[in-house]
Amino acid sequence: MKAPDRLIIFTRYPVPGEAKTRLIPALGAKGAARLQRALTEHTVAEARQFLKRSGRTKLEICFSGGSTADMRHWLGDLSFHRQTEGDIGERMKKALSRAFQQGAGGAVLIGSDIPGLNGAYLQQAFGCLAEYEVVLGPSLDGGYYLVGLGCDRAEMLLPVLFDGMTWSTGTVFRTTQQRLQRARARVAELPVLQDIDTPDDLDTMAERGWF
Questions:
Q1: What's the domain range around 151?
Q2: Could you tell me the pTM of the whole model?
Q3: Rounded to an integer, what distance in angstroms lies between the CA atom of residue 127 and that of residue 92?
Q4: Residue 92 and residue 172: Cα distance in Å, rounded?
Q5: Residue 146 lies in a domain
Q6: Domain annotation covers residue 91
Q7: Is 210 domain-assigned?
Q8: Cα–Cα distance for residue pair 187/180, rounded to 1 Å
Q9: What confidence tens digit (pLDDT) does each residue in 117-167 have?
């Protein structure tokens, strides 16, 4: 029997002044926190719909800020795990590593600030892992909104993906591609989507009627 897969959502409890800080100059602290809340709720709703169809995928919310009780009161009776210390690469690496240590057959990690991400993309990502060792979803800013691995070479590929990367730059996705090529990994890529990080990204939100 195929081992269950794991879908991991990285997010933050929406405390004003701590959430979406790069958007505070445009939206104010409370507005940025409200946007964080709306984006996360959208992502979780899409994940729930995907889980209903997939059957054997487990969902984990990997969070920072707030407490597990805060998160459960907000998002309901889900599996929550606090993000570890370290940069974003170290935190993603540990979350994915834990999934495989717990027996996941494949694991996909997504952010919570991609309004265009829906269940169809999640289904495509997990489907790719039946044939490829890694799946990536590139974002318009040069990073990526989704990363997934199968269990077979995860132990070897996790350091390739996450160790020593310069994060929050426009070269993250390209550097990741180069590293995976050198590691001779079989990689699938999803369509490019936009994440919402800076005031320049807010036009997308307005077009979608988010505020």
A1: 5-203
A2: 0.95
A3: 21
A4: 14
A5: yes
A6: yes
A7: no
A8: 8
A9: 999 999 999 999 999 999 999 999 999 999 999 999 999 999 999 999 999
